[in-house]
């Protein structure tokens, strides 16, 4: 029959050649595969290689002096806002675009790199906002004075307003939140008179409490540095003549009515030179001195030039400190209460609660105390509780009436 049906399976079989269209399809598939392999390989090389196929940056070419002169003739007018397209060199226009100096670098591939830096204005143009002096001091430097805020006097180094207007009150103030909530300042005085009492007060009182050092105390510079490292704002207590002087003697270098302005200023400066880094002055006794305008005026005038605050302990209803402080631009505050007039822990806690009621009614309040063990323990306990009730304890400089903030 002319067929292979009777031939053994798989033997002497002729293989038929593939049709032409199948061969063309096979060739097409092969080309597509080769193209895919090449594409994947190039992509992998671009990722793996540090430079890959990226374009190398151009290197600026410095121009010769002759080329600089040629470029200067071609440099754009800065007020026109046109950029130069000159190749090579660096252009530094004499004036600026919109108050900025312009430096243009032309690279050898034709790219232009423009650098803008501020220049000194001549008074025209947009106004610059002055945010005022900086409050507070870097905690790492808090124990060291700012030499720009000190002047040398025969009595020693005295606080002074800096050449830029920075006051010691601002430099050494304890920072606070700036919120409008209820604020209380607590000032604990008499530090330096007792070594154990001073050490206990610095160790146990929270850093939010302001510490006042007695000018007649001992080792004041050492204690001041320890208090400042602990985060405390500090004051200096100046002894002044009370109504019952000389039966009640405020101590050496006290300011007295009979001494006169020259001697009182000398005594004031001697006390002020005992330490540095304080935001202001607080009276120790002084009911009679604070009620006499002639005696108090030279003192307030001097404090106004030095950029320190004055805190009146509020024990004398006849005090003129507020009136004279306003006349000489002295930041001034009155204490609302002495919280340890009765020296027992329970009584002090009750006074502190009363101080809180005053603060909630008025927004702020200042309380003063002495560094007795009972006072320190009660204040340390109460501060934590008050903060839990939303009271912010701040340095006294945050609550004084400041003429610069009017």
* Radius of gyration, in angstroms, nearest whole number: 40 Å
Tell me which CATH architecture of the largest domain applies here.
Alpha-Beta Barrel
Question: What spatial form do the alpha-carbon principal axes imply?
Answer: elongated
Distance between the termini: 126 Å
- Count of helical regions: 11
CATH level-four homologous superfamily name of the largest domain = Glycoside hydrolase/deacetylase
Order of helical and strand elements: HHEEEEEEHEHEHEHEHHEHEEHEHE
Summed over residues and divided by their number, the pLDDT gives a mean of 83
What report would you give on this structure?
There is one protein chain. This protein has 406 residues and is α/β, with parallel strands linked by helices. The protein has two domains: 65-118, no CATH class; 139-405, TIM Barrel (Alpha-Beta Barrel). Helices cover 33% and strands 17% of the residues. It has helices at residues 20-48, 65-74, 168-171, 195-204, 220-229, 260-272, 287-290, 293-306, 321-327, 345-362, 373-388; strands at residues 90-91, 96-97, 100-106, 112-118, 150-153, 156-159, 183-191, 210-214, 234-240, 280-285, 309-312, 332-334, 337-338, 364-370, 392-393. The strands form three sheets. Strands 7, 8, 9, 10, 11, 12, 13, 14 and 15 form a nine-stranded parallel sheet that branches. Strands 1, 2, 3 and 4 form a four-stranded antiparallel sheet that branches. Helix 4 (195-204) packs parallel to helix 11 (373-388). The termini are far apart. The model is unreliable at 1-11, 52-62, 74-84, 86-97 and 128-132 (pLDDT under 50).
């Amino acid at each position: 029959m002319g067929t292979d049906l009777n031939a053994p399976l798989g033997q002497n079989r002729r293989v038929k050649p593939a049709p032409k269209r199948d061969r063309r399809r096979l060739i097409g598939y092969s080309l597509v595969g080769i193209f895919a392999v090449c594409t994947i390989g190039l992509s992998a090389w671009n990722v793996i290689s540090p430079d890959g196929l990226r374009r190398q940056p151009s290197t600026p070419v410095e121009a010769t002096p002759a080329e600089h002169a040629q470029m200067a003739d071609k440099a754009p007018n800065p007020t026109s806002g046109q950029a130069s397209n000159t190749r090579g060199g660096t252009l530094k226009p004499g004036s600026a675009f919109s108050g900025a100096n312009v430096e243009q670098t032309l690279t050898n591939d034709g790219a232009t790199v423009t650098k803008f830096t501020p220049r000194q204005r001549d008074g025209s143009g947009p106004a610059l906002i002055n945010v005022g002096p900086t409050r507070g001091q870097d905690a790492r430097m808090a124990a060291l004075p700012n030499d720009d805020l000190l002047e040398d006097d025969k009595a020693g180094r005295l606080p002074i307003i800096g050449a830029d207007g920075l006051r010691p009150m601002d430099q050494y103030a304890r920072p606070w939140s700036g919120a409008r909530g209820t604020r209380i300042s607590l000032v604990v005085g008499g530090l330096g008179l007792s070594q154990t009492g001073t050490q206990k007060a610095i160790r146990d009182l929270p850093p939010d409490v302001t510490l006042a050092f007695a000018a007649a105390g001992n080792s004041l510079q050492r204690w001041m540095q320890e208090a400042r490292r602990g985060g405390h704002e500090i004051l200096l207590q100046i002894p002044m003549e009370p109504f019952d002087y000389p039966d009640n003697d405020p101590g050496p270098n006290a300011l007295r009515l009979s001494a006169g302005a020259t001697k009182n200023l000398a005594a004031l400066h001697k006390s002020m030179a005992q330490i540095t880094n304080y935001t202001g002055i607080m009276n120790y006794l002084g009911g009679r001195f604070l009620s006499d305008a002639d005696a108090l005026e030279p003192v307030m005038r001097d404090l106004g030039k030095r950029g320190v605050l004055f805190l009146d302990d509020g024990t004398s209803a006849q005090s003129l400190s507020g009136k004279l402080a306003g006349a000489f631009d002295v930041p001034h505050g009155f204490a609302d209460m002495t919280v340890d007039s009765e020296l027992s822990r329970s009584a002090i806690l009750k006074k502190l609660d009363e101080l809180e009621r005053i603060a909630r009614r008025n927004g702020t309040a200042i309380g003063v105390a002495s560094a007795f063990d009972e006072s320190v323990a009660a204040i340390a306990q109460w501060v934590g509780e008050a903060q839990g009730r939303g009271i912010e304890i701040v340095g006294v400089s945050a609550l004084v009436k400041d003429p610069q903030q009017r």
